[in-house]
Design a protein that fits this description.
Elements (H helix, E strand, L loop, with lengths): L4 H18 L5 E6 L2 E5 L6 H14 L4 E4 L4 E5 L5 E3 L9 H17 L5 E3 L2 H21 L7 E10 L5 E12 L3 E3 L1 H10 L3 H21 L9 E5 L2 H4 L4 H12 L6 E6 H6 L1 H13 L3 E7 L16 E4 L1 H9 L7 H10 L3 E4 L5 H9 L4 E3 L9 H13 L7
Length: 399
């Protein structure tokens, strides 16, 4: 890309020359394509010999290449070498399969930058198979061919002032036959890598709004409307059509815009502050609420809260856990609550599990809390029942 194809071809020739000088005469060297080569090692006894050979090849490229292109001579051209090793076993059916195994191992190296040499192992094939199953399940859910594998659960949020039910956070879950429950971190990452995250996000938003409509329709006119929060990614937020699609989903489900809360993580906002904050401003102008999630885990400062187009600050669970493990005088949770209130922001504490944590939050004026002290995330039917029971009974005890 820098010096042209003639120069690039001479670099490949020099690579070939160095490798051929290093390997045994009976070993065979092939150019597989682009910048990939294959060495066929016919005679070895132990796996360690292959590893030693690979380390030796990496070592010979510690020295830079010197290649002339007739116009200029580049004195120092360093080459980064990565080597995957696939052993030929009795069960190997074809050269194609062998090269596939070697390529899988090479891809593993590319995802683990600390390594230069890797043996193909069956676990890599299983990893690729697992990713493929997850991708197919996500596509099936997005295209509405599968209505059961991907689903939402809802974790209740309650007021610390009067113990009233404020609403729920919608949490995406994936369960695949034969694989069990897949963590959100894993399937969200795959969705991003496979460019599915925008469509997946729309699907999750639609399901959350459908639940929100169903839940509020169950309430009588004297009850305050509950809110549902949904996590969104920066990929969704920065798409030009996101606001249009969001309004369309809201209208289709006939919900009040003021009952939907979009949650976006602190790190996303701080990495793209001006662009993201402008998009949040547009969303807020439509009457949709915004929550800053995982506050305190990134590199933001309390002073920047003043400039953010948000309505809520969610204190990360790490700070809540510290309430029971640290001296109260050393905690900054109270400071976060106080500063947020100065900016007219509502404060939510997530991950509350003990009465001690709840009492601390009450003492320092936190507004809303969620966590196992109230309830674990609930399936849709159980969330509706939780809400119904809450409004029917007079005793709002912790579940």
């Amino acid at each position: 890309m820098t010096y042209g194809f003639i120069y690039g071809n001479r670099i490949l020739e020099e690579i070939t020359k160095r490798i051929k000088e290093y390997i045994k005469p009976e070993d065979k060297l092939f150019r597989f394509g682009a910048d990939r080569f294959v060495i066929f090692v016919a005679d070895y006894r132990r796996k360690e010999e292959l590893a030693e050979l690979a380390r030796g090849i990496v070592k010979i490229f510690d020295r830079p290449l010197s290649v002339s292109d007739n116009e200029q001579s580049i004195a120092e051209q360093y080459i980064d070498i990565q080597i995957s090793i696939a052993e030929i076993k009795e069960s190997c059916l074809s050269a194609d399969r062998l090269l596939q195994d070697a390529t899988l191992a090479l891809d593993y190296i590319n995802k683990n930058y600390s390594e230069q040499i890797c043996f193909y192992e069956d676990i890599m094939e299983m990893s690729v198979y697992r990713q493929d199953r997850i991708e197919k399940a996500l596509r099936a859910a997005i295209n509405k061919r599968d209505n059961s594998s991907l689903y939402l659960q809802y974790q209740p949020k309650m007021s610390l002032k009067d113990n009233s039910l404020m609403g729920f956070e919608a949490l995406a879950r994936l369960n695949i036959d034969g694989m069990g429950s897949i963590s959100p971190a894993e399937f969200i990452n795959i969705a991003e890598n496979m460019f599915l995250i925008y469509d997946l996000g729309k699907h999750i938003l639609s399901e959350a709004c459908r639940f929100l409509k169903r839940a509020n329709d169950r309430l009588s006119s004297q009850h305050k409307r509950i809110k549902v929060s949904v996590n969104i990614s920066v990929i969704q937020l920065l798409r030009e059509e996101f606001v249009r699609d969001l309004i369309k989903i809201i209208k289709l489900n006939k919900i009040d815009k003021g009952t939907l809360v979009l949650e976006i993580t602190e790190s996303v906002i701080m990495e793209n502050f001006d662009l993201v904050n402008e998009r949040l401003r547009i969303i807020k102008e439509h009457g949709i609420l915004i929550a800053l999630d995982d506050f305190g885990t990134g590199f933001s400062s309390l002073s920047r809260l003043r400039d953010l187009n948000i309505d809520y600050v969610k204190i990360d669970k790490h700070f809540i856990d510290n309430i029971t493990s640290s001296n109260e005088d050393t905690l900054i949770t109270a400071d976060i609550i106080s500063m947020s209130h100065k900016f007219n922001l509502t404060v939510i504490a997530e991950g509350v599990e003990t009465e001690e944590q709840k009492k601390y939050l009450e003492k320092y004026g936190c507004d809303i809390f969620q966590g196992y002290l109230i309830s674990r995330p609930l399936d849709e039917a159980k969330a509706i029942n939780f809400m119904s029971d809450f409004y029917i009974t007079d005793n709002h005890s912790m579940v």
